[in-house]
Amino acid sequence: xKIAVASGKGxxxxxxxSASLVLARPRVLAIDLDVEEPNLSxxxxxxxxxxxxxxxPSAKIDGSACIxxxxxxxxxxxxxxxxxxxxxxxxxxxxxxxxxLCSRVCPPGAIFxxxxxxxxxxxxxxxxxxxxxxxxxxxxxxxVHVIGETVKKAETLGASDWVMDCPPGTACPVAASLRHADxxxxxxxxxxxGRSDLEGMLELTADMRIPSALVINKTGIGNVPLEDLCxxxxxxxxxxxxxxxxxxxxxxxxxxxxxxxxGWAETTRSLWSEIERRFS
Length: 280
Ligand code: SF4
Ligand code: SF4
Hints:
This protein is α/β, with parallel strands linked by helices. It has helices spanning about 15-25, 40-45, 70-75, 100-105, 145-155, 170-180, 190-205, 225-235, 245-255, 260-280; strands at about 1-5, 30, 50-60, 80, 90, 110-125, 130-135, 160-165, 185-190, 210-220, 235-240. The chain is built from 10 helices and 11 strands.
């Protein structure tokens, strides 16, 4: 089973839950798809042993062939080409998505493409755990491409069970992660902000027809009801992790509370049982 651990908002404890699920079942493949800020390996206590570069095409202009018509700048919907009404346009390689449109519309064919590094897929093993980590290069905007390449690498490893730590939010990066999942485990907190972003995630998973279930983390930090959302979207709350100072301190030290908090570990094991009861 491929489980996507996601949350509408950051800071709900999504990565703590992902790490705990992996630590409770080390045979699952741990995949960090939060490529703008990957930190699952830290909570697992694993260090990478291999890194593969992720590249994609980036547009370049042959200044000797350019006739300064500005067509390319008008065509690029990503705003990657700056042209001030004369001279040779300037391409911002960090913003280029490698779509190839500018080279197709350039009248003299002055635009060509070169591969540029946009990130890495890192991998490693520790304590029986295999993990993969997508990591976006600083300054690059090609998040979805790095996520796609990380998943492609995962597919070559032959593991039937995955825990994917997804990016926060409800935009393209999380949709690009969810599309590889059999179910989405949505981590939220009982606060107004948590409820609002959870609703967005439930709408997204419903639109993508991905079965979902909830984990409420930090119970006691707020009392905003979430049960009505469960009824509306036909989903269930599978586990509740109480807010605790010790769990917060673990996170601050870069450790998983699964290793130090017996109650947290027990709730994680129970969560696995609930996932298997409902989704296997
Ligand atoms: S390849 Fe696409 S994104 Fe890159 S500069 Fe050309 S039109 Fe813009
Ligand atoms: S479309 Fe081609 S020729 Fe026109 S400004 Fe861009 S690079 Fe130069």
